[in-house]
């Protein structure tokens, strides 16, 4: 009997999710569904239904279930002009999608489903080389007020990807391209909270990269928060990944979010083996240590043996002062020399630089912090850089196409539509930046 793992491995290295669908028309109709059979989890797709009543309001319902049994849903009302409905082109009348959302409807329904990103992506298990994350079943159902016209069930997962732990001195997991292929290396850096960015590494592996999701805090032998993290620990991860048997090329890329974005820019500016750098809501300034939303440590975040660079201190908390204001106030209060010595020399990065910002980031002022980096890149004539800003996006800019809702009480900023559009639009730019490694 062929095991499920063997079946996944036999998909000829298809970097995507499987859409195993079959139309289940109601007795009153003979609708037929057309959709792709295989595509990546981050690839948009359309859903065409033939045999629907023309000039009729139709309800399109997405329902799903996680491995835990928890369910989620989203729905939209569209109008059919003929007896053939192309979901992404249909006029939206009502439903859960924000008005004017610039994301294809079929995948936008996943993004706005009534489940948080954390609940959807969290598996509670360390990645294994059999499958990660577990299956998530989706059902698309077409209804009128009187009846169900038909439905399809889709099963999507990351492709079979080899996942292994790093060397004895490093903490993290390496995601390799499918089917034993090799590809350029990318070091993936989490934020201040230490949550592993396995999903990012897995998606990059789908696109032919060997991605190393490194832990630099909250792991065995590591500090609990970004406080004097040995700089050599991260640079040794760069060297280790470059020498990995499944890595091609002389340079590797860096992807980081929040403080990981700050760290990626810093490492890229000081290590010749680093090429392209992508910073998601990161910083062009070096800040003192501590969790971004917590208490500053009074010591540097990164253990640098360099007197020419120093970290900027976060302003003291005052009555009614939020974490965002503390960073803003610190920048305003800093003198020219303080800012200069805390500014990362990003012009030294040996490759393209992509800065991705949600202007409504309420954790720290990403727009200003990335502008500091952009202005320096521009002033020093760096050959390739871009600062992409999304006005209605916040701190959390996930990869497509995953739910973008945040848990109740989240103060990370951004609207549902803004975060969904940023997730949809920024990812091709990320892949384009790293394509320079090929």
From TrEMBL:
<feature type="domain" description="BAAT/Acyl-CoA thioester hydrolase C-terminal">
    <location>
        <begin position="229"/>
        <end position="434"/>
    </location>
</feature>
<dbReference type="InterPro" id="IPR016662">
    <property type="entry name" value="Acyl-CoA_thioEstase_long-chain"/>
</dbReference>
<dbReference type="GO" id="GO:0006631">
    <property type="term" value="P:fatty acid metabolic process"/>
</dbReference>
<protein>
    <submittedName>
        <fullName>Dienelactone hydrolase-like enzyme</fullName>
    </submittedName>
</protein>
<dbReference type="InterPro" id="IPR006311">
    <property type="entry name" value="TAT_signal"/>
</dbReference>
<dbReference type="Pfam" id="PF08840">
    <property type="entry name" value="BAAT_C"/>
</dbReference>
<dbReference type="GO" id="GO:0006637">
    <property type="term" value="P:acyl-CoA metabolic process"/>
</dbReference>
<dbReference type="InterPro" id="IPR014940">
    <property type="entry name" value="BAAT_C"/>
</dbReference>
<dbReference type="GO" id="GO:0047617">
    <property type="term" value="F:fatty acyl-CoA hydrolase activity"/>
</dbReference>
<keyword id="KW-0378">Hydrolase</keyword>
<dbReference type="InterPro" id="IPR029058">
    <property type="entry name" value="AB_hydrolase_fold"/>
</dbReference>
């Amino acid at each position: 009997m062929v095991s499920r793992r063997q079946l996944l491995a036999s998909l000829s290295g298809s970097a995507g999710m499987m859409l195993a669908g079959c139309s289940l028309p109601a007795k009153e109709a003979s609708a037929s569904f057309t959709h792709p059979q295989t595509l990546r989890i981050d690839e948009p797709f359309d859903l065409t239904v033939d045999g629907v009543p023309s000039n009729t309001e139709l309800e399109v319902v997405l329902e799903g279930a996680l491995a835990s049994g928890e369910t989620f849903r989203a729905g939209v009302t569209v109008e059919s002009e003929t007896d053939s409905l192309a979901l992404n082109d249909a006029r939206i009348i009502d439903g859960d999608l924000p008005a004017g959302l610039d994301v294809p409807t079929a995948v936008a329904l996943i993004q706005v489903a009534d489940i948080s990103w954390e609940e959807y992506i969290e598996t509670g298990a360390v990645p294994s080389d059999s499958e990660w994350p577990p299956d998530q079943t989706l059902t698309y159902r077409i209804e009128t007020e009187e009846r169900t016209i038909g439905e399809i069930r889709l099963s999507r997962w990351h492709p079979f990807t080899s996942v292994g732990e790093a060397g004895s001195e490093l903490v993290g997991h390496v995601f390799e391209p499918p089917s034993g292929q090799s590809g350029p290396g990318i070091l993936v850096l989490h934020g201040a909270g230490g949550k592993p960015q396995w999903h990012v590494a897995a998606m990059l592996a789908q696109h032919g990269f060997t991605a190393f999701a490194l832990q630099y805090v909250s792991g065995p032998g590591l500090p609990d928060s970004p406080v004097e993290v040995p700089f050599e620990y991260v640079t040794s991860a760069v060297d280790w990944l470059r020498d990995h048997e499944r890595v091609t090329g002389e340079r590797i890329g860096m992807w980081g979010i929040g403080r990981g974005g700050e760290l990626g820019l810093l490492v890229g500016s000081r290590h010749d083996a680093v090429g392209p750098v992508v910073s998601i809501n990161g910083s062009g300034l070096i800040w003192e240590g501590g969790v971004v939303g917590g208490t500053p440590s009074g010591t540097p975040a990164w253990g640098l043996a360099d007197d020419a660079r120093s970290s900027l201190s976060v302003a003291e908390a005052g009555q009614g002062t939020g974490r965002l204001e503390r960073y803003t106030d610190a920048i305003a209060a800093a003198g020219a020399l303080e800012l200069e010595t805390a500014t990362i020399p990003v012009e030294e990065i040996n490759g393209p630089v992509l800065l991705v910002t949600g202007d409504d980031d309420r954790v720290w002022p990403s727009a200003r912090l990335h502008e500091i980096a952009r202005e320096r890149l521009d002033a020093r004539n760096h050959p390739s850089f871009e600062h992409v800003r999304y006005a209605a996006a916040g701190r959390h800019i996930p990869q497509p196409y995953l739910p973008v809702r945040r848990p109740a009480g989240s103060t990370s900023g951004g609207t549902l539509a803004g975060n969904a559009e940023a997730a949809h639009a920024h990812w091709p730019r990320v892949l384009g930046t790293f394509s320079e490694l090929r």
